[in-house]
Design a protein that fits this description.
The protein is an all-alpha fold. The protein is built from 9 helices and 2 strands.
């Protein structure tokens, strides 16, 4: 039976349903697409290259974020509140934060690897791919665990059906933690992506063959995470509670659509990966794409 509950401030029953439905649709779509990406990698042997291993790891991080969104959707639609207590809230936020930090790190690593795939023709070794992946997951877990021991705090989002970093306190702990995250997990990855994709773009111009749009990956990352990040940075200097609860809720919902875009871009839209996905779905054998090289290289 439904326990008595009060709706969070600024939200009607319909709002809870609408946000819950948005989280459900985004979570299911992302889960479905990333599951296909993961299963294709596991089941199609010739897909298992070091470069594709990075894309596979990205899909694993993203499916974790989808699960996180689905838990929030379930709480929103069926309970209208968070039924798993403060510990459940901290675990939920920790899982979400680990997924996000790993996902963004793999986006930057894939950009770096693509530069070598297309421009320098240096092959990625398995040992490097494994080492990078272990480091990325390790760092993501460490950075996400820090608020559990008191640097930054995990608490409920305005709708009180999901949990994240509490940006409403705006104290020194929050400011220093958020500042570190912004540098290491937004500015640095965005710089790596921009410089590598710019170099690939210049190379495509040189060989007069644009194989794909090099500006999209960074734009997608900034579209999904930029608004939420701006609010988190604003909370370092101003009172985030002055921002309307619905807007504060809309931003993480938008951010949680990132795994859908990533699946399209990096699995279904990646010439080295989509053939394997196609083979997994249809059974038709795929042939490796050939990268054009400049003469004399």
């Amino acid at each position: 039976k439904m326990a008595a509950y009060t709706l969070p401030e600024g939200f009607s029953d319909f709002d809870m349903f609408a946000f819950g439905s948005a989280l459900l649709v985004g979570g299911l779509l992302g889960f479905f697409l990333n599951a296909i990406s993961i299963l294709a990698y596991i089941s199609v042997k010739q897909m298992r290259t070091p470069s594709n291993f990075l894309v596979f790891n990205l899909a694993v991080a993203d499916i974790m974020l989808n699960l996180n969104g689905l838990i929030a959707a379930y709480a929103s639609l069926f309970y209208r509140h968070w039924p798993w207590g403060q510990d459940g809230c901290s675990n939920h936020a920790f899982m979400g934060m680990t997924a996000v930090l790993a996902s963004i790190s793999f986006l930057a690593t894939i950009a770096w690897d693509r530069y070598h795939q297309y421009v320098t023709s240096q092959k990625l070794f398995w040992s490097t791919a494994w080492t990078i992946s272990i480091i990325i997951w390790g760092l993501a877990i460490i950075w996400a665990a820090v608020p559990l021991i008191g640097w930054g705090v995990y608490d409920f989002e305005p709708m009180r059906t999901c949990c994240t970093l509490d940006y409403t306190k705006g104290d020194m702990d929050y400011i220093t933690y958020m500042g570190a995250l912004t540098v290491f997990y937004l500015i640095f990855p965005a710089y790596v992506m921009k410089s590598n994709y710019d170099a690939i773009h210049a190379y495509f111009k040189k060989i007069h063959k644009h194989r794909w749009n090099t500006s999209i990956p960074l734009r997608v990352l900034l579209f999904c995470w930029g608004p939420y990040e701006i609010m988190c940075i604003y909370a370092c200097f101003g009172n985030a509670r002055l921002v309307s609860p619905k807007l504060r809720m809309l931003l993480p919902v938008l951010a949680k659509t990132n795994p859908i875009f990533n699946a399209w871009l990096y699995s279904f839209g990646n010439e080295f990966y989509r053939g394997g996905v196609w083979q997994f779905l249809t059974g038709q054998k795929f042939t490796e794409p050939v990268v054009v090289k400049l003469k004399g290289r």
